[in-house]
Amino acid sequence: MTNEDYKLFEANTIAKYGIMPLTGCFLSPIATKALLYLIWKCNSETPGVFDTVKLRPSELCEALGYTKDKNRNFSHNLKKVCDVIQNVMLQPFKICSEDGDKYISFTWIQTMAVDLKNDSMWIRFNTDLGMYFGSELQKSFTVVKLKYLNRLKTSAAVILYPFFCRYAGMGSFNYGVEDLTILLTGDKQCDYKHLKRNYLLPAIEAINTWTDIRVEFIENKKERRVSSLSFSIYSEPGLPELESYMEFHQLKPSEVSAMNYDEDWMGAYRYNMAKQKYELLSVS
DNA sequence: GTACGCACCTACATGCCGTA
DNA sequence: TACGGCATGTAGGTGCGTAC
């Protein structure tokens, strides 16, 4: 599997409103990333059709950043990830009309079968999922690279990275504080200071450090109250990419700014999703 | 060598309060 | 209304002994 394979195609509606609020209850970062991986895996094997997906639990575990290390906890994490998916089955997915008078509710996953001994699992998505995220995915979607998403740890960062990728092509855009509050907290009563300190700033710092985009924002005020935010999205390498680039060109940190960053180095490296770092390919 | 269970630690999420 | 400090509960990550 190559770096380019770690992509996710999201419907605009998911990117706009976020996968977590859409479920009616917030999923943990691990649950969100696991679910996104399953959606990506399913879409890569049966584009636009959401029915069933087969994969190895160890593959999912490694894709989420867990590796077999000296601490012998891989089997722990394997079961934990399976439990996380099982919990996703318990959390209903809810889509409401504008006024909230009409809604439809179902679960993401209908059935999961796991065989840890033979390292296999089988997931059946809810049969109604295809009506909302099936063929529509092929018409308009946002590309999110899972290798970047999976480096993020907080729920806010996991929500915001796909959100910013959705708008990356626009360069800059405005977004209302109330919409952003619902996106990140699910509670529009949450005040802006709480949103900024506990969600927005830590998430943007993580995104700027670990992903392929850089986000900056300014506050737009109506009188004293912050009413909306103007976000600017730039393409910029993450820290692991920058470190490998420096290693490849044998640059010191002070010399990086004088160079124009390129991705020539990537041919000499392989990205290890489990370890979440680049490994130099051996010359044969 | 690997799976499992347990304990511990860290980071995150949340709420409350005081100050400007 | 914005900002920051502090306390507390929880989720996730890590280390290690034991059993198979």
UniProtKB/TrEMBL annotation:
GO BP, one annotated term: DNA replication initiation
Family statement: Belongs to the initiator RepB protein family.
Start and end residues of each Initiator Rep protein WH1 domain: 27-164
Protein name: Replication initiation protein
Superkingdom field: Bacteria
A single MF term (Gene Ontology): DNA-directed DNA polymerase activity
Lineage start: Bacteria, Bacillati, Bacillota, Clostridia, Eubacteriales
Organism of origin: Clostridium porci
Parts of the chain that traverse the membrane: none
Family annotation (Pfam families): Rep3_C (PF21205), Rep3_N (PF01051)
